[in-house]
Amino acid sequence: MKKVEIFLLLTILLLGLILRLYKIERPIGDWHSWRQADTAAVSRNFIKEGFNPFIPKYDDMSKQANSLDNPQRYRFVEFPILNTIIAGVWSITGINEAYARMVTVFITLGSILLLYFLVRSFSGKTIAFLSVFFFATIPYNVFYSSAILPGPLMIFGILGLYLSFVKWLKSENWIFLTGSIFFANLAILSWPIALFFLPPIVYLSYEKYGFALFKNLKLWIFAFLSLVPFIAWRIWMLNFPEGIPNLQFLLNQNNIRFKGAFFRWLVAERMGKLILTVGGFALLVIGLLVKPTKKENLFYLVWLASLILYFVVFASGNVRHDYYQVPLIPIASIFMAIGTIKLFNLPSEHFSKILGPPVALILIIFMYAFGFYEVRGYWWINRPEIVKAGMAADKILPKDATVIAPYGGDTAFLYQTNRHGYPVVDRPLQELVKNGTKYLVSVDVADSGVQKLARDCKLLVHDNDYVIVELSKDCLD
What are the boundaries of each domain within the chain? Predict the structure, then answer.
């Protein structure tokens, strides 16, 4: 690499780091705090209760995940790789959400490097630089790559898989094949939707070997070793049914797939308004219209088709949760880069060459201006009282107490108390007290039911923003 190339790449990495330091110390009360709280809780419990990645536990004892009681607080979704990394960092730094966010930030910086070298191998340095610039700076991605979520780690794994697999196909060096297996496992175990992004690997294999790929023993070894750990994890999970959330609703709840609302939410609201905005979406469309080079061939298009397949299969999940579109960012950044370069190099026979560059710049400015406007509230702590109440509860309640911290089922409030318990009242209070849960922390001080409990039961703390009550059988009768 030349010095200029290294300088530009380091500049983009530094810019990506600086952007992600914005409000890095915010507590887990920002956008999608419930999912972040569940992820962080597993890491915290590794520290508090001992490390066992095969039996991850979070704080929620309720049955809201799948209608089954979960007194042991099992949390069986993705294999807890990210949780393990965060726990490892916390074992050195102490439990602090800022350090957990920094784990995601540095994972994303690694993704910037992987994306650069991947795109450079297909499309050259210019498109590679522009792709990673977009990847590093899109406001939506800036937020989610400083959130405590497994998506960025999966992206890192997928990009590492593509790059190492390309290098293996060129050299057939076993080191790159081993790297491909490692990154495939990292991606799939971190977030199983990575399975949808394996078709580009099949395409690259076909491009190299044709139909003889089915006779290639090394490819079968790669496939076997990439999938077996995930299959083993899914089989192991079946021993803990109460810890497996019901995720059927993510597929096609209310038969939304291919309905008008499906396209409106994904195309207009998410891509056209929130993530890429009108400017980035226009650049993406222009990039799609550009004929791929011989090196690129159909690789980017197969990658995009994999993303679309994922959107279609997890239709309601993608409509319901905007963080489900995190896998869009790398491939969208590539096509936006291609579209931008095309506007700077319009053929004079059919276009006004002088207008291409300013149009590209205007679209890019729109993308950042509108994008930050849409996501600026994601960093906000809209209910700071849950943090305040959680700190108070952590200070005065016994360390082994279980608590009720009702917050509409959102575990962010429960997480702030640093206790296990219930983020929703899913059974009579008498039953909870009988089972040993006798503390209630509430930020709904105006609620008539909470006010009655504060009058009839032992009131430990009364604040304008929250109350902490000790429940008993007598005061509930």
Answer: 3-378, 384-476
